[in-house]
Amino acid sequence: MGKMTDCLVIGGGIIGMMSARTLIMEGVSVTLLDQRECGKESSWAGGGIISPLYPWRYDDLTNELSFASQIIYEDLCLQIFEDTGIDPQYIQSGLLMMDEYDLPLAIEWMNRYHVDYQFHVDGALFSNIAQVRNPRLLQALKVDILNKGVDIIEYVKVNNLLIKNNKVIGVRTKDKNYFAQDVIVCSGAWSSKWLKLVDEVFPMKGQMIILKSTKSMVKNIVLDQGRYIIPREDGRVLVGSTMENVGFDNHTDIGVQKSLHKFAYQRFPSLFNVKIEHHWSGFRPASLSGKVILGRHEQFEHLFINTGHFCNGLNMAPASSDRIKQLIINA
Ligand SMILES: Cc1cc2nc3c(=O)[nH]c(=O)nc-3n(C[C@H](O)[C@H](O)[C@H](O)COP(=O)(O)OP(=O)(O)OC[C@H]3O[C@@H](n4cnc5c(N)ncnc54)[C@H](O)[C@@H]3O)c2cc1C
Question: Which residues form the FAD dependent oxidoreductase domain (predicted)?
Answer without folding.
Answer: 6-323
